[in-house]
Design brief:
The protein is mostly helical. Helices cover 75% and strands 0% of the residues. It has 4 helices and no strands. It is elongated, with a radius of gyration of 16 Å.
Length: 88
């Protein structure tokens, strides 16, 4: 990762990109890569000394990505896949 984003828009985009990467890595069970991405996400969030202001659209996009990688969502998807395998 390069320098800290200079604008709130850049920050929001980088945050969203990291969340998308983390979601993909977790749902694909790439835990080593997910660990590195989570560390980058932590560094990005803790590097900001001033308050973070995001638009409602940016917040919704973040919540959507977080929901994709939640335990319950992933568990529901795995359960559906198991059911499909049992039916076949």
């Amino acid at each position: 990762m390069t320098d800290m984003p200079k604008t709130s828009k850049d920050f929001g985009q980088e945050l969203l990109d990291l969340l998308k990467d983390l979601t993909l890595q977790l749902t694909n069970f790439n835990f080593d890569e997910a660990w590195i991405t989570a560390e980058q996400l932590h560094k990005l969030l803790s590097s900001r000394e001033e308050k973070i202001y995001l638009t409602a659209q940016e917040r919704q996009a973040i919540f959507k990505e977080l929901d994709k990688c939640s335990y319950y969502t992933v568990n529901r998807e795995l359960k559906a896949l198991r059911q499909q395998l049992l039916v076949r």
